[in-house]
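Anyone up for a design puzzle?
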């Protein structure tokens, strides 16, 4: 019984951490998108022009 509970907790924590990291990556992509969009609207700035597109 104890093994099952520990396994479920471990699985739950793993899913939570992966979800948290995925959320951070999505927010990072959103921030990059907004920076590039701002660059097009306002004609650019030094901080935005230093971002490399891969």
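Challenge accepted. My sequence:
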């Amino acid at each position: 019984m104890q093994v099952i509970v520990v396994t479920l907790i471990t699985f739950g924590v793993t899913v939570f951490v992966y979800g948290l990291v995925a959320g951070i990556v999505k927010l990072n992509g959103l921030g990059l998108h907004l920076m590039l969009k701002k660059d097009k609207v306002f004609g650019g700035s030094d901080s935005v022009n230093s971002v490399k597109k891969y």
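A detail worth pointing out: The chain has one domain: 2-41.
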